[in-house]
Amino acid sequence: MLSLSYLDIAFQVVDLENERSAQPKGDQPAILIYSGGSNVGLFAIRLAKKAGYTVVAMASPRSFDLVMRYGPDAVYDYESSASIDKIQNTYPDITKSRQLFQGPFDGLLC
C-alpha cells in the first residue's frame, strides 16, 4: 500500500511540474527538499528531478552518499547553520521548498 506521504509529495510535484512547464525553456528553477535522506525525501528528489528542477537536498552527513544516488544537484547538512548561508549564496533564486519533517532551521531559507 502506498503511504499517504508519498501521494502528497507526488501531487505537490505534479503542481510544481505544471508551474515548471509554464516557464521559458532553459530556465531551470531550484527547489529545496528538506529531509532528503528519508524515504519520502528520496522519492521527492526523484520526482522533482523528473519535473526538471535543480534539486537541493538537506540530510544528515551519514546519508549523503545515499541521497546523492537519487540525483540531487547538491546535498547539505541539515544540522549545520552554515548550510543556510551556503544554500542562499549558491542558489539565491530558490523559491520552492518541500519540508517533509521539522528541523532546527525551519523557516530560515524560503
TrEMBL record:
PANTHER family: HYPOTHETICAL OXIDOREDUCTASE (EUROFUNG) (PTHR45348), ZINC BINDING OXIDOREDUCTASE, PUTATIVE-RELATED (PTHR45348:SF7). The keyword Oxidoreductase applies. It comes from Aspergillus keveii. It comes from the Eukaryota. Keywords: Oxidoreductase. This is Alcohol dehydrogenase-like C-terminal domain-containing protein. The lineage of its organism: Eukaryota, Fungi, Dikarya, Ascomycota, Pezizomycotina. The keyword Oxidoreductase applies.
